[in-house]
Write a structure and sequence with these properties.
Oxoglu/Fe-dep_dioxygenase_dom; 368 residues; jasmonic acid hydrolase; alpha+beta; 8-stranded mixed β-sheet; 17% strand; 11 helices; 12 strands; DIOX_N; plant defense; oxidoreductase
Length: 368
């Protein structure tokens, strides 16, 4: 159930949340209990009363219509649901199926793939290396897909037998969708179609990784979170959620909105790197995951990121005397070190980057 203290760089034994859930305990350990201000509360869920949801964008509509809808969603929400996206529904079912199969494997099988904070690749149960930190009620599996030199075949599970083939096919389809979305987002900004992709290092330079999230049943769901409030540090996230069980909440106008997933849709959200590149015209948004006592939940997040050693900064076309650059250049390698050290903490990292840029007199940007 737990790894040795300090093993692989973790500061203390790693406990698998799935094992806690399956133990039959009626209460959760203190390590998972959130402060009262961070606990889920029906009174703070805006759509419980107003029935609002994140925007839905039809990717099969005309290019201009899709670009306008995506731009509005990225400016106002930082999130949208993409329908008619072109990824086969059968592949979505297979991807969910193989990963449910992995998390149903015996614990000794899963433990062979235990991860470390050096790369997070493999089977994990915590983020951040702060000793004594409050933990989230969830396990996960993290994999690098691109660039090729980061691909680690020994980290890809062998069970179920078709997991590797399915995950490869799935991640390639979603990568192509991400490239389409980057072009649509650029058109919505009024810049050249390939401009955002260029800022990420081109199609061959961009990074792709997959995180499969598994949220077991929880005996006290009102006291904890499946994933703490955060904005995604990368460029863009394409999320395949469990269309049977809700759990994702998005912060909008000061309240938490529980996303009602459209069957077969992808949930797309802006990450911090796109906020930087667009000089905050498109904004990343805090989101979190709640859990429940009756149902487990699985989701598959594909992260599309800039080339890790490429300095990322606002596009010159989006900078003017009236709208000076809000961020100083920083590589994604340097940026994500904060997350790996501290775990998810709202929007503190991108806000810190903006604050640093504000202290530089007459700051300028480059796209390199």
């Amino acid at each position: 159930m737990a790894e040795a203290a300090g093993d692989g760089g973790w500061p203390e034994p790693v406990v698998r949340v799935q094992a806690l859930s399956e133990s039959g305990a009626a209460t959760i350990p203190d390590r998972y209990v959130r402060p009262e201000t961070e606990r889920p509360s029906s009174s703070s869920e805006a759509n419980a009363v107003a029935n609002i949801n994140i925007p839905v964008v039809d990717m099969s509509s005309s290019p201009g219509t899709a670009a306008a809808a995506v731009a509005e969603a990225c400016r106002e929400w930082g999130f949208f649901q993409a329908v008619n996206h072109g990824v086969p529904a059968a592949l979505l079912r297979r991807a969910r199926g193989v990963w449910r199969g992995f998390f149903q494997q015996p614990m000794e099988v899963k433990q062979r793939y235990g991860n470390s904070p050096a790369t997070y690749e493999g089977y994990g149960s915590r983020l951040g290396v702060d000793k004594g930190a409050i933990l989230d009620w969830g396990d996960y599996y993290f994999l690098h897909v691109r660039p090729p030199h980061l691909l680690s075949p020994h980290k890809w599970p062998h069970l179920p037998p078709d997991l590797r083939e399915t995950t490869t096919e799935y991640s390639e389809e979603v990568r192509r969708l991400c490239e389409r979305l980057m072009a649509v987002m650029a058109v919505g900004l009024g810049v050249e179609e390939g401009r955002l992709q260029e800022a990420f290092g081109g199609g061959e330079g961009a990074g792709v990784c997959v995180r499969v999230n598994y949220y077991p049943r929880c005996p006290q769901p009102d006291l904890t979170l499946g994933l703490s409030s955060h904005s995604d540090p990368g460029g863009m996230t394409v999320l395949l959620v469990d269309d049977r069980v809700k759990g994702l909440q998005v912060r909008h106008t000061g309240a938490w909105v529980t996303v009602d997933p459209v069957p077969g849709a992808f949930i797309v959200n802006v990450g911090d790197q796109i906020q930087v590149v667009t000089n905050a015209l498109y904004r990343s948004v805090e989101h979190r995951v709640v859990v429940n006592a009756a149902e487990e939940r699985l989701s598959i997040a594909t992260f599309y990121n800039p080339r890790s050693d490429l300095p990322v900064a606002p596009l010159p076309e989006l900078v003017s005397p009236e709208r000076p650059p809000l961020y100083s250049p920083m590589t994604f390698d340097d940026y994500r070190l904060y997350i790996r050290r501290n775990g998810p903490r709202g929007k503190s990292q991108v806000d810190r980057l903006a604050a640093a840029a504000a202290t530089i007199p007459n700051s300028t940007t480059t796209t390199q």
